[in-house]
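pipeline/complex-builder :: batch 7 item 3
reading input block
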Amino acid sequence: MAVPSVAVQTRLSIRSRLAESRNALGFGFMLPAAALLLVFLTYPLGLGVWLGFTDTRIGRPGIFIGVENYEYLWSDSVFWLSVFNTLLYTVSASILKFVLGLWLALILNEKLPFKSFFRAVVLLPWVVPTVLSAIAFWWIYDSQFSILSWALQQMGLIDHRINFLGDPTNARASVIAANVWRGIPFVAITLLAGLQTIPQSLYEAATLDGASRWQLFRYVTLPLLTPIIAITMTFSVLFTFTDFQLIYVLTRGGPVNATHLMATLSFQRGIAGGQLGEGAAIAVAMIPFLLAAILFSYFGLQRRRWQQGGGD
Amino acid sequence: MAAIKEVERQETDEGGMGYLQSLPRRVVTVYLPLLVFLIVLLFPFYWMTITAVKPNIEMTDYVNYNPFWVVHPTLEHIRYLLFETSYPGWLLNTIIISTAATFLSLAAAVLAAYAIERLRFSGARQVGLAVFLAYLVPPSILFIPLSVMVFNLGLYDTPFALILTYPTFLIPFCTWLLMSYFRSIPFELEECALIDGASRWQILTKIVLPLSVPGLISAGIFAFTLSWNEFIYALTFIQSSEKKTVPVGVLTELVRSDVYEWGALMAGALIGSLPVVVLYSFFVEHYVSSMTGAVKE
């Protein structure tokens, strides 16, 4: 460091070494996360696809049997029923969650006393373990002592107890209701965050122009909220589509497979029934739907960038 | 005068144009729906609590007792749960597994997030995207191959099966959350430290981490809650009764015969939810802001 030119040289070499080591350092820092994810996420993903092409059972390694599992599933009416159920469950629960969640978000966006308290309390259904709240729903839906049946009977709306989980149609409606109950808070709180980013001045300007409340919502709120709606709903759809816990607690797929989702069917065949290969094939069959949802999210994000005036 | 106007303006700004609405209208459009939402969203918790302290006689007798209330509250169900079942053991298992998985994931996520966000190694953007995509891979399509792996690795029926697999959904989530947090820390601080000759490790531990304590807390709470709530892996990878976690234990061990012990079940669900709710209520602001922040990204 005595001679300036030497100092400049060392600084240069340090800089070049830094540039080089940035990758090495980045690699080192990434290592723990990457190792865990590669071993326990990427590899099982591939293994799952492979298992779908084998006849592996619990306790017996399988051999490659090509698309036999898929051929079997193709002609299996229970599998198609589960696909139908999953789509019905996802679509109806997501629509309800969106409508009710947006409504709740709009309410919470109003000027309210104890606003932060309400915001905190509303999130509770989303915070508690799904299985445990599902057990509460199980008790609420009990065929003999259902509090809902009792309350409706007291009000004189029905004359005998509702068989919530024993009848195919009722069971579907009941699990969807429980899922919506759990999903509303997530949708509401994320959409509320989106609502709060919308400047008040836009509403004031629109009101001065004579816009009605519906027009305010339709032409100011909704367009500005679209990007966050796209992301929130993608997540919501993704989690609803792959739902397992709620069904497993409430109906285990019954009655007569009327509420079997692809995830629960995959568990039933793969783990409970021991047919790992077939279970894996059912799980793999979910991937195209998930990819569609992710692409939807991707285009939602694209639109957001475009709305912000390009760039990222 | 101007000051008063300014205050007025701020006050009205807060509620938007709510002042344009009359009170009766607000009751119908805001307070009434809010009340209905609150009742529906909170009723299951009320029902859980009331059932947990209700004697069995009252529970099944809707003629003489109003089911919405409890006349002679009892701690019998809770006593049964805590002293005659393996429930305390499940609680302990869940605490150990969730804590271990949370710390493991946080450590890995801090390093990864810092590397992606600040080291900007070649391909950092792609790695960031890959982490995001990893978050979208649901456990429902991973549990079958993972169960094969867990079995072959000899981890079946050990806590390590869960401690090592939970990071698959915790790391992507924490990394993503911490990335947005690190982005908010001024780059200049790090540059100063670099000029003073600090190593990257020193920068991370002495500058970035102390500044991101709030981010770490929210990521930690999230991770803890997610692992506490996890079900499908715990159901698949754990066999013995005493090694189960709370959600799995309550569902598979407390439900035995056709006569359900509803009181004990509800008590189990209630006590199992409490730690998460308490943790959440302490950090609700972090929770809400990081949740919305993570979605806004």
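note: DSSP finds 16 helices and no strands in chain B.
queue -> next item
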